[in-house]
Structures are given as structure tokens and as C-alpha cells.
Design a protein that fits this description.
Elements (H helix, E strand, L loop, with lengths): L6 E8 L8 H11 L23 E6 L4 E7 L1 H7 L6 E3 L7 H16 L5 E7 L9 E10 L5 E10 L6
Antiparallel strand pairs: 1-5, 2-3, 2-7, 3-4, 5-6, 6-7
Length: about 160
């Protein structure tokens, strides 16, 4: 049986950068919180203003109540998630392989996440690196479309033992 690429151990809402470890995660949360009490629009995020986040960033778009598309993956995010830009996952997807089950779990998480109005911290392990002590932290933040619907998820991910974070 193939091990999963990443294993989420827990996730929960965060309201302060002090609750995060990864520098880019803290930076993204600070930006997101600067719009409080509102949720920022996708158009409020300009990657040129956040060039330091590029390698760790990801963007997901809700296509329907069940389907999500990966729109952007920085290099670090791509190396961890191993999903291609344009890939779609669904809460109703097949679950015959561990990767498919992982995709369905992620789509279900996104569905529940977008019902919230705050960012979530995820922490877990990276078993694909074949080292039990390799952990990650990611931050998921909702973004609104032009009609004020929360259909985007912008996030960053950090490998916690990486000296750059």
C-alpha cells in the first residue's frame, strides 16, 4: 500500500500570526487579517506584492458545491501536494486508491472550510519524504469572488524543519 504524501494531524481556526510557525504562513495571515472584519476579495491579492510567498503559495477555486480546481502551486506547494495546476478534485470522486481517498478528503475539507469566515492552520507529517520527523504547517484563507462569494482558498505551506521558515 502506498503511503500518502501528506498526513494532516489536526486543523483549527487561527486569529493571530503568533499561532503559526512558518514565516510565509505568518505573512499571509497578517495580510488577510489586515482586511478585518471583512474577508478579502481574490482581486485584493496581487502576487507582485507578495513575491516572497511565491514558492509556498497555492490557490484553489471552488467550481461547484463538490468540485475544486488547483489554480496555482508554488514550487514548495507542488513538491508536497504533487498535484498539477488545473487538476480537479471532488467530494464525489473515486476512492479506489489512497491518492483518490486523499483527494476526496481534501475536497470535503475545502467544502467545510469555505463555510467558515476565518483562516485555518493545518499541521501534519510528510511521510513521502521517508522521515518520520518531517512535519508541515499550512495556512488556508478564504477569498471572495466579485459577487462576494467565498469560492477561493489561498494558502501557504511550510516544512517545519526547514531553516528558511
Amino acid at each position: 500500500m502506498t503511503k500518502t504524501r501528506y498526513e494532516v494531524l489536526r486543523y483549527y481556526p487561527v486569529t493571530s500570526p503568533d499561532e503559526l510557525i512558518g514565516l510565509n504562513n505568518k505573512t499571509l495571515l497578517e495580510w488577510w487579517l489586515s482586511f478585518a472584519p471583512n474577508i478579502p476579495f481574490k482581486s485584493d491579492f496581487d502576487i507582485l506584492d507578495h513575491i516572497d510567498l511565491v514558492s509556498d503559495i497555492f490557490l484553489v477555486k471552488r467550481l461547484s458545491d463538490t468540485d475544486y480546481e488547483f489554480r496555482v502551486h508554488g514550487e514548495s506547494a507542488h513538491n508536497i501536494f504533487d498535484d498539477n495546476i488545473g487538476k480537479t478534485i471532488s467530494t464525489n470522486g473515486p476512492e479506489t486508491t489512497e491518492k483518490e481517498r486523499e483527494d476526496v478528503r481534501l475536497a470535503r475539507y475545502y467544502t467545510e472550510f469555505l463555510k467558515q469566515s476565518h483562516c485555518f492552520r493545518n499541521e501534519g507529517n510528510l511521510p513521502f519524504l521517508k522521515k518520520e520527523h518531517i512535519r508541515f504547517e499550512s495556512l488556508d484563507c478564504p477569498l471572495l469572488d466579485e459577487d462576494k462569494n467565498p469560492i477561493y482558498i489561498i494558502g501557504t505551506i511550510a516544512i517545519l524543519n526547514d531553516k528558511n521558515h
